């Protein structure tokens, strides 16, 4: 069920109406139970066959958490470490089995084939549970945070299950962390008008970027990627330059909608994007892109590696970052293109580490008439180019296809093909990028700063209606969210 | 070493590593309180502290710290 559909609106209306009934909203537990039932219904509507897996995984990790807590309380640190390792392996095991088993088996078979051993692998083609990459990461972080003593194990199975399956973020994140989310389930959420209004604005902005930008650009990028060898170099370059914007509009659009829906229910969820196209280098870009995943991997992979490699200086740091980014790449799927995608970005960190620029966070300061300074703008554009090239590895289905694409960019002619994009989409992109700059420091583009204009209710509603009308008038054909496949 | 003395030395290390003019550390100070203190500078801080006090932390100790107070507890446990 896509978030921007009438079916979801109907589903949410029912959830909302019961969630805020006085008899329910007075009790945190009743609200959590209702959220849990709603989340399981939501998951069942999307993929009922895998609901049992979600329930079993939740039950296993709930029990594991209690066991781990008992070991920590008893001062049995060695056994607690073993229990944590077991939990991490169980979580990764679920991921490996459903997402990566065929990939590893076929890679080993290919390797053995190269060595002259005739081994073939018949793919199992397992059905991948929706949201598996997201809910397993929530489960793993729960166990690690208990072990680090940043969190006590939840004694309420329903509360824990409500955290793991929270429907706005169940299928595509953000990956909420237990130490921030579980406490929110322990207090009742009476209707918070201010938070709900902000959530509705965020949903509206997410719908706009998804439906007016991502769903429109996909027409061009899908057509170009369907047969890159038949496209002119110009079309290949344009599609490559537009893809990061499409991916951003799609995924940040989803994230804004999910976070907005969470706010209407009274929850503050993890942030996922912070105007990433203002980044002046790849380090800034990854700090502001898919933040809930990058911070997860930073805390649980990069930090332990970096601590272990700390005596190796810059070499240790570079190694930790490259491993980190390759893992981020592979998190997206079982293909070497994703691994290379991570490696590509990892290599761009090396000059930053060597020069010492990596650790320094230079604030963006406005220049002439509040515009970005020339030097900053040039760095943003250069970084965008680096990102656009890296995203080819993300978008391509295989290394061969990416190779064909890159070859076409230099070898094919420069004829102008059909773009098939409504001019309003280009205007929307320009507006989105301008809002990147003007709204930096806010959580989303429609978090209106108090001022003479937006203090008037009439102007605010004119803005909302204009956006709604634009969505109806200029939306592209509905496409599944790109990150649903992960 | 007295807790007060440890704090004094830590403040010097924080200023040096994080490029701060001055910093006032308390038991409750955590990474959220100092903008320049992120996952990267944290490792640089750890290395500098280990050098300054001539000790070595375990990975588990480092990962468990929630604030400066716990960092100082670890230092005192090593009899600095």
What does it look like?
The complex is a heterodimer of chains A (486) and B (80). With 486 residues, chain A is an all-alpha fold. In chain A, 69% of the residues lie in helices and 0% in strands. Chain A has 19 helices and no strands. Chain A is globular, with a radius of gyration of 23 Å. Chain A starts with 5 loop residues before the first helix and ends in a 12-residue tail after the last helix. Chain B is mainly α and 80 residues long. Chain B has one domain (3-77): Non-ribosomal Peptide Synthetase Peptidyl Carrier Protein, Chain A. Chain B contains 4 helices and no strands. Chain B has helices spanning 3-18, 39-53, 59-64, 68-77. The longest helix of chain B has 16 residues, at 3-18. The radius of gyration of chain B is 11 Å and the shape is globular. The model of chain B has no long low-confidence stretch (mean pLDDT 90). The chains are: A mainly alpha (486), B mainly alpha (80). At the A-B interface, helix 13 of A face helix 2 and helix 3 of B.
- Quaternary status: heterodimer
Largest interface chains and counts: A-B, 18 and 17 residues
Which H/E pattern describes the elements of chain B? HHHH
CATH fold topology of chain B: Non-ribosomal Peptide Synthetase Peptidyl Carrier Protein, Chain A
Number of domains of chain A: 2
What Rg of chain B, in angstroms, do the CA atoms define?
11 Å
Largest sheet: number of strands, sense, barrel closure of chain B: none
The CATH superfamily name of chain B is: ACP-like
Q: How would you characterize the largest beta sheet of chain A? A: none
From the helix content, strand content and strand pairing of chain A, which structural class follows? Answer: mainly alpha
Give the domain tally of chain B.
1
Strand content of chain B: under 5%
Helix content of chain B: 55-70%
Helix content class of chain A: 55-70%
Proportion of residues in β-strands of chain A: under 5%
| Average pLDDT number of chain B | 90
* Cα end-to-end separation of chain A: 15 Å
């Amino acid at each position: 069920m896509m978030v921007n559909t009438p079916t979801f609106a109907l589903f949410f209306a029912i959830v909302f109406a019961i969630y805020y009934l006085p008899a329910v909203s007075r009790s945190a537990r009743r609200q959590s139970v209702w959220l849990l039932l709603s989340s399981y219904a939501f998951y069942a509507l999307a993929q009922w066959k895998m609901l049992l897996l979600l329930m079993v995984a939740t039950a296993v990790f709930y029990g594991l958490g209690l066991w781990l807590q008992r070991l920590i309380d008893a001062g049995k640190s060695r056994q607690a470490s073993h229990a944590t390792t077991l939990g991490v392996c169980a979580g990764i095991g679920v991921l490996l089995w459903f997402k990566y088993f065929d990939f590893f088996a076929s890679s080993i078979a290919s390797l053995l084939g190269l060595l002259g051993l005739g081994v073939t692998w018949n793919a199992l083609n397992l059905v991948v549970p929706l949201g598996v990459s997201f809910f397993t990461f929530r489960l793993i972080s729960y166990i690690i945070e208990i072990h680090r003593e940043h969190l006590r194990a939840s004694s309420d199975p329903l509360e824990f299950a409500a955290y793991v399956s929270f429907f706005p973020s169940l299928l595509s994140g953000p990956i909420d962390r237990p130490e921030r989310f579980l406490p929110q389930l322990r207090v009742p959420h009476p209707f918070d008008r201010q938070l709900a209004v902000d959530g509705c604005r965020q949903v509206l902005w997410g719908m706009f970027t998804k439906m007016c930008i991502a769903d429109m650009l996909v027409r061009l990028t899908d057509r170009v990627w369907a047969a890159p060898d038949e496209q002119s170099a110009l079309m290949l370059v344009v599609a490559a330059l537009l893809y990061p914007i499409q991916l951003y509009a799609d995924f940040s659009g989803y994230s804004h909608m999910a976070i907005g829906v969470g706010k209407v229910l009274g929850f503050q969820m993890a942030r996922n994007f912070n105007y990433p196209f203002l980044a002046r280098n790849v380090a800034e870009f990854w700090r502001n892109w898919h933040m809930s995943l990058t911070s997860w991997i930073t805390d649980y992979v990069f930090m332990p590696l970096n601590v272990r490699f700390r005596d190796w200086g810059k070499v240790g740091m570079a190694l930790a970052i490259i491993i980190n980014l390759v893992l981020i790449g592979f998190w997206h799927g079982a293909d070497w293109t994703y691994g290379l995608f991570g490696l590509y970005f990892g290599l761009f960190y090396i000059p930053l580490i060597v020069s010492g620029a990596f650790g320094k966070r230079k604030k963006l300061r406005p220049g002439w008439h509040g515009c970005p300074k020339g030097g900053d703008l040039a760095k943003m554009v250069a970084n965008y180019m680096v990102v656009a090239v890296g995203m080819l590895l993300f978008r391509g289905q295989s290394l061969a296809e990416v190779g064909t694409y890159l070859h076409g960019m230099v070898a094919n002619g420069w004829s102008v093909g059909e773009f098939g994009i409504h001019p309003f989409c280009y205007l929307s992109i320009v507006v989105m990028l301008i809002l990147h700059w003007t709204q930096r420091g806010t959580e989303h583009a429609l978090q209106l700063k108090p001022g003479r204009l937006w203090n008037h209710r009439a102007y605010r509603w004119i803005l909302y209606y204009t956006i709604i009308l634009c969505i109806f008038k200029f939306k592209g054909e509905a496409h599944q969210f790109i990150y649903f496949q992960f | 070493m007295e807790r007060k003395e440890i704090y004094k030395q830590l403040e010097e290390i924080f200023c040096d590593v994080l490029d701060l003019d001055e910093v006032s550390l308390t038991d409750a100070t955590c990474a959220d309180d100092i903008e320049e203190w992120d996952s990267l500078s944290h490792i640089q801080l750890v290395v500098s502290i280990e050098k300054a006090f001539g000790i070595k932390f375990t990975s588990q100790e480092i990962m468990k710290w929630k604030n400066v107070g716990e960092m100082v507890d670890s230092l005192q446990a090593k009899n600095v």
